[in-house]
Amino acid sequence: xxxxxxxxxxxxxxxxxxxxxxxxxxxxxxxxxxxxxxxxxxxxxxxxxxxxxxxxxxxxxxxxxxxxxxxxxxxxxxxxxxxxxxxxxxxxxxxxxxxxxxxxxxxxxxxxxxxxxxxxxxxxxxxxxxxxxxxxxxxxxxxxxxxxxxxxxxxxxxxxxxxxxxxxxxxxxxxxxxxxxxxxxxxxxxxxxxxxxxxxxxxxxxxxxxxxxxxxxxxxxxxxxxxxxxxxxxxxxxxxxxxxxxxxxxxxxxxxxxxxxxxxxxxxxxxxxxxxxxxxxxxxxxxxxxxxxxxxxxxxxxxxxxxxxxxxxxxxxxxxxxxxxxxxxxxxxxxxxxxxxxxxxxxxxxxxxxxxxxxxxxxxxxxxxxxxxxxxxxxxxxxxxxxxxxxxxxxxxxxxxxxxxxxxxxxxxxxxxxxxx
Length: 421
Ligand SMILES: [Zn+2]
Ligand SMILES: [Zn+2]
Known about the structure:
- The chain contains 15 helices and 16 strands.
- It is α+β, with helices and mostly antiparallel strands.
- The strands form three sheets. It has an eight-stranded mixed β-sheet, sandwiched between helices. The protein has a five-stranded mixed β-sheet with strand order 13-12-14-15-16, sandwiched between helices. A three-stranded antiparallel β-sheet has the order 2-4-3.
């Protein structure tokens, strides 16, 4: 084959798009119910936006970004995640001026130069929300409730919610030092990446996937014990709200999330159908991000959920029945003479809200009937020599196989009656 899709990307074919649409439409309708409004940001941004917000020493920024210099000599990056662009748009368009909490949602492709493996793609797709303008833990609870509700609504109910607090600029540096102290005796036994993390971003050692690192860091001090009073109160309140909403969770001190901008709440949603390494999605609070990007100090919280991963789990659970949409009516034209009136009939049907299809490959009547069956048509309208001469069409009920003749002028009305009956 001469051309192939780029490594790590997918073609989402017509057999699968109905499933994608179901997932996306469920998300849209839930967001509406929770009071979130859609935002769409560009596919690429200034590279600096991502390095600044996610942190230079995160894997995504240091190894995985699709960064290039455009013809004007600017460094731009295909968005590797959805939060920084939304926050950039929030600041640039002064959404704060609308007052209250800005509750935004998005559906977007993201781009990361990953080693392709199950559930990881170089172009992946995410559903996400960002709620900007309140530091109240009730908002954290709402955001988490929305994510869990979404999975339940698409049919994935056996999930674990993993929760942690990553502290704030007051208490995190203290914890960072405690963690360094703990790791100092065995830092040279850690993987190369963790040795860099030890210097630059020690919290990230905690979510290293390597067995050796996991074992060495198993008894690392618990960040919860280092939280300042404010962070602890926030975490306790969130936990009590989740309890009140009957949302079960486990606290995992090793959950730190990938990016530097997280503060306080961090969470992930894990399905055993995906294997241990892959969360379906996650999120957290980012109280310093708006300011970091150039806005006034404004707290926020959000999540991003992987669409591909949700679809893998739906398939695993046998809930991914992806059937193509059916067509209501087939118009069978027999002979060249019938083509023009058939086209007119098609147009009338479609304009009155009925889906309709015809044959463009000069099939025989038998062949056209087969096609009508394959498309799931309930009715076929036949136009042949006799029908043309008499100004009528033959109408065939594809279920009962009954046929009758109707005036061409009344055909659309008859079809509509049959379909609604
Ligand atoms: Zn704190
Ligand atoms: Zn490691």
